[in-house]
Write a structure and sequence with these properties.
The chain contains 8 helices and 7 strands, in the order αααβαβαβαβαβαββ. With 223 residues, it is α/β, with parallel strands linked by helices. Helix 7 links the parallel strand 4 and strand 5.
């Protein structure tokens, strides 16, 4: 099966136009190549760089820390007052993320919550103006009600890998072992595009990214 969202040649061209990172981010990009660790794709990172320059997030919740690459990238974009809480369940990733966050000098601004988001999210309190969902793709839908509670009106939910290599488009495209995940993502896309609290766009770059703005609160159907 050909797995793509846009034509590889166009993707490669667009990627070649991005200004490469330097320093620790570059080092982490190299580290994540072998063995492969999925980190945010350059086009999605660039989209969020531009988006954050408008939305100016102050407190961000991430699901899926991996080696801490996106958390470090976001913290650098958010400036000195930006705060990040990030959830990760894989102990090997947690160890690497801690080392990297230490190296980046961001221990005061990035907090890792260790464990499964399934258990951590329900107990989480407070408000996050931005939520970045980048782990547990099959469970995005289950997380949505709690995320809507954590997001104030005006807040943004960003969902990565939402098109899952394009196979969400049709069940015929999904290999058997990915059918459940593809179904769950289709149902999640329906939820975020039809929820009266959200205004959503799904952008086919990287592995697909959803950007949803919470435009009104629960029970506030009209405004
Ligand atoms: C795509 S990677 C995250 C990449 C990272 N956000 C970045 O761009 O640098 C997904 C991560 O989510 C973690 N993960 C998956 N399901 C999870 C869950 N239910 N709870 C917590 N972490 C989870 C995985 O262990 C993996 O490290």
């Amino acid at each position: 099966m050909e797995e793509r969202i846009i034509y590889p040649e166009l993707n490669n061209y667009l990627r070649s136009q991005l200004i490469p990172n330097t320093g620790l981010l570059k080092e982490l990009e190299e580290f994540a190549k072998n063995p492969y660790i999925p980190i945010i794709q350059p086009e999605v990172a660039q989209l969020l760089k531009v988006f954050f320059s408008y939305s100016k997030p102050k407190k961000l919740l991430e699901v899926g820390t991996a080696i801490g690459y996106s958390a470090i990238f976001f913290a650098e974009l958010m400036g000195k007052k930006g705060e990040i809480v990030t959830i990760e369940r894989n102990p090997d990733m947690i160890k690497l993320a801690k080392e990297n966050i230490q190296k980046a000098g961001l221990v005061d601004r990035i907090t890792i919550l260790e464990g499964d988001a399934k258990e951590i999210l329900p107990a989480l309190e407070g408000e996050f103006d931005t939520v970045f969902l980048d782990g547990a793709k099959g469970q995005y839908g289950k997380f949505l009600p709690k995320i809507l509670q954590l997001l104030p009106t005006g807040g943004t939910l960003i969902t990565d890998n939402i098109l899952y290599r394009g196979i969400v488009a049709s069940e015929e495209l999904a290999p058997k072992k990915h059918i459940t995940i593809a179904r769950n993502l289709r149902s999640y896309i329906y939820d975020i595009t039809h929820n009266h609290m959200l205004e959503t766009t799904v952008i086919p770059i990287g592995d697909g990214v959803g950007i949803s703005r919470k435009i009104r609160g629960e029970g506030n159907e009209k405004n």
